[in-house]
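SEQUENCE-TO-STRUCTURE ENTRY
===========================

Subject: a protein chain together with a token-level encoding of how that chain folds.

Sequence line: the amino acid chain in single-letter code, read from start to end.

Question of interest: how does this chain fold, as expressed in backbone structure tokens?
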Amino acid sequence: MPILKTQSLYQICLENIVHNANFWLELKLAQEKNKTATNPFDSLPASLQQDILCTYERIHGLPGGNNFWLELQEKWRLFVTRQISKLTITEYTGKTSLVHIASTCRNLKHLELKNVQEALPYLKAVAPCLNTVLSLDFETMAHVNSASLKYIRSHCPNLKSLTKSQFKFASLLPTIAVAQGAIVKFIGDRAIKKGEERGWKRINSGLVPVTALKDPAPKKVLGLKSCFLNDKAVNQLKHISSLMELDLRDTEVTAIGICQVLKCNPQLRSLQHPEVGRALYKMHSAKTWLVRVEASLLSASAASYRLREIELELSTKDHCNMLSVVTSVCPRIERVRVEVDMRVSPYALMPLSKLEWLCELDIQCVAGSNRKPWDDQPSTGTVLETITLFEGSIVPILESRGKHIQIVLLEGVAAVSMKIIQEHCPHLISLGLYYNSYAQNSFSIPDNVTSSKPFPSLRRLLFGSNSGHDDFPAPYLEWLLSNSNLVELSLSASPLFTNELFTRVFANSSAFPQLRRLELDYCNVTAEVITEFLNSCGRKSLKELSICGPFVREQASPALCFIICEKLDVQVEAYFYSFVKMKKRMVRYKQDLNFISSKPDVGSPRHTLESRNRANRLPSYLDVKKQWGGECKC
């Protein structure tokens, strides 16, 4: 008999508090009339206050421009209490709400500005809260100039950490296979209570198990992705000496600005920008004037950076020794993301095989532009034309570092051999295969597929293919999907995805006993298959269902109805991609579909249980049917 997963009593209590917002608001107004202006939730523990606010935002969404949110700003402010530590501000957060935040929040640690045109006015509005802020995150469309960074530098003295919304590998549960495979990187469990995490950590003598750890030191991160940021503005970061991670993707910063960042912040552990490689080569190559001028001023230790994570581009315009310079001045790199022109030498990525700490490899091949290569770059002859990037660069990397690599993501790579990946990377935790071409006879499926599983440690699988059965065989894909340890599964559009395959994989009640997140990106799977999947996996481990593409309305509507009727603890994410022009570039961002606009509030906690059930269930169903136009058979 399968184990059924129901809502916890704690979650039910949180939702009951939120649904009675009218009662708590009347209580607060009555206290204000009696000149005892206290929030009814101020006496609660800080963690409970934060959970109540998160529950309210989960049910009603973040502040938006619709009439619903404009009317409920006062109720939202009711749950923004003195001990709140994490808060999100959008462009629709009213002035009254900003004043309330500035006068109330004195324990704010994580602040996110989402979809605001100008960041500085919002920062000034909540200036009294910035002294305690450890995390500052700017979402798409935020304009961050030198004045904004100056303001951050002067008003955020404790800027330390950033909590990203992307799925992290650190949240995956460790398995016996992972432990036996001597995993280099620590794998924690967010389900375990704070301060009692499990995993493995690296020391000088090797790997040791970790059964109890203190709270990890806060990271010092600043995320400025997709912001209006240039070289002049980024110079203001030179005085933030505590900065450890910096995200400058999709900005106007050039290699010159990256050079300034690296000079002033050699302590950086992570710098995400495609010009990092060119900036390092410009500063440390013997052929550049910068090194000739400053060679006498730089010590041997000054040329070594602490970067653990790097993102770079490699094109035919770049020098053939650029990557060698990068690996020599950044020897402790653990995570590499490379966007490589398919016309470069197939041996261009071989220097990465020298990185002893390499545990994550992300390679994306793209079609290059018409740019002239360096004059001293060796021309590719007929011998090189017969060798692919996978054979010339990726195979040597896997042969030297494959036993320690935990994450491999290949996109657009030609002649990929699954046999080689399976042979040299036995301890993979995450595998991503997007729109590659595969070598002939590179797939090996054992006779007994039930007893032998590919990549026993695999926890995360991402797959997408624009080719059919002739390139990537469907039986091998089904064999990959049979891994019972999968925690996250992301499937992108492919001719291999048929109703028969999804029925065999998803409709099996014993499949995916640990799966927490399922992402269907442009997958033409029927609503019946999704419902069958929710009926089995949704009652056990599933937490998130993400749907994107032209079929999002037809798939998400019945899925949401089934979740509501069966009272499953599963969150549905439905979205599509939009594009916005930011100066000279197009930026893609996710636009969520809010298919539940509101839930009614109960006026008094003395309502009967039957009236509460009707108030909670019926309007949700009507909202789904009205906004999505689908039929619910629950």
Notes: The mean pLDDT is 73.
